[in-house]
Design goal:
By secondary structure, the chain is mainly beta. It is about 5% helix and about 55% strand.
Length: about 850
Amino acid sequence: MKNTIKMLFFAVAILSSAITMAQSTVTGSVLEPESNLPLPGVNILEAGTSNGVSTDFDGNFSIVTKSNDAKIIVSYVGYLSQEFTITGSKDLGAITLSPSEFGLQEVNIMASIAVDRKTPVAVSTIRAADIELKLGTQEFPEVLKSTPGVYATKAGGGYGDGRINLRGFSSENVAVMINGVPVNDMENGQVYWSNWAGLGDVTSSLQVQRGLGASKVAVPSIGGTINIISKTTDVEAGGNVYTTLGNDGFKKFGVTYSTGVMENGFAATVSAAKTDGDGYVDGTSFNAVSYFVNLSKEINEDHKISFTAFGAKQRHGQRQNRHSIATYRDSERGRKFNSDWGYKNGQETSVEDNFYHKPQISLNHYWDISDKMSLSTAAYVSFGSGGGGGTGGDGTKFSINNDEYRIGNLGTVDFDKIVAENEAAGVNGSESFLRASRNDHKWYGVLSTLKTDLTDNIVLLGGLDYRNYKGIHFTEVTDLLGGQYASDGANVNNPNAQAQVGDRIFYDNDGKVSWLGLFAQAEYSKDNLSAFLSLSGSTTGYRRVDRFVYLDSDPLQETDSYNFFAYGVKGGANYNIDENHNVFANLGYIERAPFFSAVFANRNNVDVNDDAENQKITSFELGYGYRTEKLTANINVYHTTWKDRTEVARFQLQDGTIAFANILGVNAVHQGVELDLKYKATNKLTLTGMASVGDWRWQNNVENVEIFDETNVLVNTVDIIIKDLHVGDAAQTTFALGTKYKFTPKTTFTIDYNYFANLYAEYDPSDRGEVAPDAWQVPAYGIFDSALRHGFKFGNFDAALTARINNVFDTQYIADAQDGSDSNATTARVYYGFGRTFSVGMKLNF
């Protein structure tokens, strides 16, 4: 018996020894090519097995193989995979991954992408893989809702109608850039996300730089900068087809194909998708066709050109009118209720809708002039066409309060009744009809940056930013609703117009904007210290053309150009204390030219506020970063003072003309603390967290401002009582927790929780002319989202299934609110957030 036990023990020992000898330990580190910094989260897989790990926050990895002879695959989204055949234990050393997209590094440079532990700004970056995993049926800005300082909602709930605030600032005070090209509206600074439907399909990375940001161009990044980097073209040939199905009839089909880089240096990628759905909110059905084309050519070692065109032609119904909480409760449709639609002859018809097509086309040229000098230039153009719907004539027939033209209590608009009445009116024309407010535009620009290495440690950059914009604004008849014409006397060139569908009515004018900006930036980097100093200046010129108010022969039909100069200076430094700790600081002062509407405040060509004041912004920030193998964390504090928010008082002179007084001193302070962290609990489990606590308030009252006319007669006294009132329209306190668990290297499950509090209803501070309470505080709310992605082989193809659920527990909450007369829940007008939604998608790579 003892001999038997000894033999068994000996056999087990030999077997264990054999297994041990068959295993090997492979180590190494993975670096980004441009910055040479560690790349965390890279997948390390033993080919033919489910054995895999990922790099830690310092880019290091260690994997114990199941075989002594093994093939190790190193892969990461956006980079080319590398394979290593090993025998026995081995240290692979530093592995530098190459981008899988041709020209991506050049785009990143032009777009001023911030680098971790080097660029002294607070920054969050979301990669394409996470966008694809979490976007689903959400609005594109909602991908950022777990980012510190961000508040993103679907607003009215129409396709593409989402909005985003950053550190309490709305879109006109947040610079949005696509591949380094500014896309904020040239007249009012706003960003209309419906113009970029389908952008999530072609985004390579999305980076939010909070506060001053790293952008070199003279853009109004008061709250921060959102840098969207689109795909370029893939280095390797291939493509994919994909489809997504979701709640309320959501369906999407798309295809992408890349030639790869050919022997002659040419590469091309094309992508197209079609999206349709009924919409979660009633009466918001939508359809869109999106496309993307990139053509790249490496002419020689010194020159590379890239042509990119993308856009989406879309139309969707809207919910423009907010309602009281009681109205939603009384409606059978609850939070899906929408008063802005109905049926005409059995077909869904929107009172308010949106349609737009805005192709963005750019030609980029990258020139390595020498080893120490390079020039990057982007020439771009955008042609926008479309607008938003509304009513003409007797608009009361479309009102929610007019039961005579509603089908049932709080029902849909009775379009058929309106059509019957218009038909009966005959030659008297349409009493009520539908129209569209058009906002077409033509936009040309050039952005060019020259980079010179003055020394091994100092880099000097300089360049120009030229833009020329023409906004074409008019109203057109879209549906006479059974009538023969629409009457309009607004056009002095055709005072008795009987307008047909497609004819222009009410107004027809152009806004012309010219912009020339110059910028210079010095960057210093040596050992553990990096710093920069940036200067920028710009001149903005405004002209206005009006074809309805003035005769074609009247020289007043087009104004002179009114020019405004603005400038900015900012700087910062980052110091890496050691491998684990770093600190940074930045500060800056920016003056921003007034918007178009502040200059032509009466919407004519005579009453011009040519002394409109610049807005002034001062900002500073301190930050600390911590990096270990398991944990990365960042904390920063910021303080931004926004002075002289545009405030204009109009008054009449004795000759009957209108004059303007610019009211100074409408100031706000936005300050807060932001924390984000990522903890790699195991090779399979990663935890993320975020907390953002803001204190955004109006700083002071403006009282007893006396306005005198040209004869020194007192004509008005202005009072704006806003001191210590909270800034509205964005949650000042946000919190997020997330988990990502990898069941296998190709199967990922995520759960995210987001909490929003201290959200005050939107209001115009100009309306607070007497002592008033704070705006209504919306109840705090929290929602859970979840996603599951599984990769597998489908024949010879790599495939993936992705399932998503947003608002898992169907929480009912108010996401947007407008303050009412008594600043309480009864008088506020609100939009409810979406309930539980879902989507399931499949992608097949070839």
